[in-house]
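REQUEST FORM: STRUCTURE PREDICTION
Request ID: SP-0412
Submitted by: Lab K.M.
Chain count: 1
Length (residues): 231
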Amino acid sequence: MASPSEKDAGARLDEWSPRLLKSRLYQRILVDIIIGALAPGEQLDENALAKRYGGGLAGIREALARLALEGLVVRRARVGTSVAPLDLMGAREAFEARRLIEVHCAGLAAQRASDEEITQIRATLDDGEVAVEDNDQAALAAMDEAFHVAVAAASGNRTLAKMVVALHHQTARYWLYAMRGPAPADGIAALNEHRALADTIAAHDPERARAEMLKVLGDFPTEIKRSLESR
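STATUS: Completed
RESULT:
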């Protein structure tokens, strides 16, 4: 039987081990796209990225190729690579897919998660209060991804876990774009919702876990629609 660490590696795509430089470059570029440090529509120069992130051109190109597959950058012959624009319809569809897949994953995790996997799920939220207090968007984005990937990995369904990774990347920047600079009380409330979900998984209550995941994900927020339409 695969260990939790092996499941996590599989969920993040086997050929992209966190130990590899191309994976670290990918993660850093990904987070900057999510938090808007690399803005929608911004043209990306490979040499400038190599200097910015401290990697070689080969690693940068591999990272950009993966981001293109996930729809986060657009690569055009003789034009180059740019950050994908924010797209309301695409965001709505990705959120709908997350609700279907992650609610099911939460129920499976409540049935199947080991004690070690439950510990890993809870550990992703350990620094939550500090990130909220500092309004550290990069830390919040990384924490949220780690939580959702840990829940998906605990479902025991590797195919679903891979889908969760890709969908989370596609949707995270929409949340942060619309909710930029949230009140600390809102951040703590969201953190508590995540912890309530972890508790229901630990209690091995699939029905409640599915309900708590719905709370965590929420509906497609009107704030996102309003923010994008006002651009």
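NOTES: The mean pLDDT is 85.
Reviewed by: T.R.
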